[in-house]
Hints:
By secondary structure, this protein is α/β, with parallel strands linked by helices. The chain has helices at about 5-20, 30-45, 75-90, 110-115, 125-130, 150-155, 160-165, 195-200, 210-220, 230-235, 245-250, 280-285, 285-320, 330-340, 340-350, 355-365, and strands spanning about 60-65, 95-100, 120-125, 175-185, 185-190, 205, 225, 240-245, 260-265, 270-275, 325. The protein has a domain at about 50-180 and about 270-320: D-Maltodextrin-Binding Protein, domain 2, CATH 3.40.190. The strands form 2 sheets. It has a 6-stranded mixed sheet, sandwiched between helices. Helix 3 (about 75-90) packs antiparallel against helix 13 (about 285-320), helix 9 (about 210-220) runs antiparallel to helix 15 (about 340-350) and helix 15 crosses helix 16. The longest helix is centred in the last third of the chain and has 35 residues, at about 285-320. The N and C termini lie far apart (about 100 Å). The model is unreliable at about 1-45 (pLDDT under 50).
Amino acid sequence: MKSFRQILIGGLGMLLVLCSLAGCKQETAPSAQQESQAVAKEVVNDPLVAWQPAFDPKSAEYTYILSNVDHPAIEGIAVGYHIRDKVWQRSGGRLYVDFRPMGQLGGEKDVIKKLKLGAVQGMLCSSVAAVNVADKLGVVNLPFVVGSFDKLETFRSTPELFDDFRQAAVARGILAVDFTGYGTYGWATKEPVRTLEEARRVNFRVAQAPVNIDTYKAWGLKFTVMPWPDVPQALQTGVVTGLDHTPIVCSITKKFNYAKNFTRIDYAQGLYIHLLNKRWLDGLPTDLQDILLRTIEEESAKARALTRDQQERELVAAQGRGVQVLELAPVDRQKLIELSQPVYDSWAERVGPEYLKRVRSTLADQ
């Protein structure tokens, strides 16, 4: 006589056969095809897959590691890949620009340390973080000094202004060889803001940067200093009700999903300053130095022009998604300029009184 165990096993076996014949659904491991499709989907979703080089960089004699924390969907970041490809072509494959965006090498403060040591040779550093390298680099973030695209180009094309900026961190072994950008700063807010009175009801998120903090103190506006990764939840929950940033960044990073109004202030330009380890540069053959610096200059100029266009495109796209684009009342914008005087006074010593005066007077009529 069969044991109960044998009967049970036999019954289960028969049940499986019947289920199979009847088309019963069974939970199975994914097939090789399904796994391939899943991997393909991940690759398609990889934001950097479209930027892979069309050449093998292993044969390069020299490698220039260039870091950034942001996304190449921003024209001022995509420049890193354009520099990579042009330098490779011009150098005949001798110099490879290994561009690492999206924080692959760490946050900006960490990368600045690596840059000073030479572990990283270059960095597209945000202008708000650049004051950690040299105070003079903060001149571009002072309110209403280099606020418009036209003022930015005048600043870059005037040797009396840009040469001092370029050499600001040379004592620390770093050159500020050029810059690109991510647009002009304004206010993304949950409620419409057209006047200073309305702005005083907003709690603005402000970057962890001394110029920005000093500016909002001088303006008398409520603000919260907050790391960028915390912003989405803070906007959703109402911890902050406004964001001090540019339309390009607010649109691409979907901050307009939570703040459906943007007030154009154009009080400062968001820049990516191309910092380069001077000792490493001096160690390159002269012809490669020339190729690298010339390419950075050319591609940065192109990127700045593209940034101007991208800002307008993103504003139009945001409006198509229901974002209201506003202008601050002229009288209130003038009031912000007047309220900024303590910022100019306190930063004059850090930037250099004569230099700041020269920059402001040169750009005053732009």
